[in-house]
Amino acid sequence: MEKNPVQCQFVTALDSIVGKWKPIILYHLLQGKPLRFNELRRLLPGITQRMLTLHLREMEEEELIKRVIYPQIPPKVEYSITEYGMSLSPILEALHQWGAAHVQRKRLNKENNEQTETD
């Protein structure tokens, strides 16, 4: 069976950024300031240490973020967005805007449905 190249491109792109936490991690790193592991954890209430580690490793493998280890005691590790990862900025901004509009639309639909039921 032949694979659909367009579908494969979408799947490849989404695999890099989809997940409950990846877009939010990228959002924080896109602010430009390198963040340490525990700083990221504080910014993401509800994420487990294991899940944060997994997502950071996956995005590092995809070259979206970089990890810098400073040789000191205790060891210091910082995560930052790569130049390649910065290319996701307009995509994530567009997703954010669409999401905000979608939430607004759902709220209005719910209000309209509730209004219709009371009439």
Textual characterization of the structure:
The chain is mainly alpha-helical. Helix content is 63%, strand content 12%. The protein contains 6 helices and 3 strands, in the order H-H-E-H-H-E-E-H-H. The chain has a 3-stranded antiparallel beta sheet. Strand 2 and strand 3 form a beta hairpin. The chain is extended. The relative contact order is 0.12.
Strand content: 5-15%
Structural class: mainly alpha
Largest sheet: 3 strands, antiparallel
How many distinct beta strands?
Answer: 3
Q: For the residues shown, what is the average pLDDT?
A: 90
Q: For the CA atoms, what is the radius of gyration?
A: 19 Å
The N- and C-terminal alpha carbons lie at a distance of: 55 Å
Order of helices and strands: HHEHHEEHH
Helix fraction bin: 55-70%
Give the CA-based shape.
extended
Uncertain segments = none
Question: What is the spatial order of strands in the main beta sheet?
Answer: 1-3-2
Number of helices: 6
